Amino acid sequence: MRAFFCKLIAPRPTFAQDMSAEEAALMQEHAVYWRDWMVKGRVVTFGLVADPAGAYGIAVLEVDDEAAVRSLTANDPTIRSGRGFRFDVYPMPLGAAHP
Q1: In a domain, 98, yes or no
Q2: Distance CA 3, CA 25 (A)
Q3: What distances in angstroms separate CA 27 from CA 19, 43, 49, 63, 83, one per listed residue?
Q4: CA 53 to CA 30: how far, in whole Å?
Q5: Taking the model in full, what pTM does it have?
Q6: What pLDDT, in 10s, does the model give residues 3-61?
Q7: Could you tell me which of 4, 13, 5, 3 has the C-alpha nearest to residue 56?
Q8: Which of 37, 54, 47 is closest to 6 using CA atoms?
């Protein structure tokens, strides 16, 4: 297994403060999606980072390869929504996670 850091960038820096009800529902779908992968053992952690320059989401994944990461992120409801979200994905060649 390899570890990857995934950063979800929202369509605007103020998204966490001013999302619409429809966007909030989309974020609920997003959270369910990643919780399901956590139960399956692929997600170490995920959540919102309250960066003053603009909040963003993170997930640390343990998967076989980069293709698996790209598949998981591409199928996130936020990405499938076509609303301007994107993931930046970075390999984590060193590190440790709590078992």
Answers
A1: no
A2: 29
A3: 9, 17, 14, 23, 12
A4: 22
A5: 0.93
A6: 999 999 999 999 999 999 999 999 999 999 999 999 999 999 999 999 999 999 999 99
A7: 13
A8: 47
Q: Of the candidates 41, 34, 39, which has an alpha carbon nearest to the alpha carbon of residue 6?
A: 34
Question: Does 9 reside within a domain?
Answer: yes
Question: Using one digit for the tens of pLDDT, what is the confidence trace for 52-91?
Answer: 999 999 999 999 999 999 999 999 999 999 999 999 999 9
DSSP 10: P
19 located within any domain: yes
Q: Would you call 6 helix, strand, or coil by DSSP?
A: strand
Rounded Cα–Cα distance for residues 86 and 93 (Å): 22
User: Exposed, middle or buried: residue 97 (CB in 10 Å: 0-12, 13-18, 19+)?
Assistant: exposed
Domain with 20 in it: 2-48+57-92
Please report whether residue 99 resides in a domain.
Answer: no
Amino acid identity, residue 60?
V
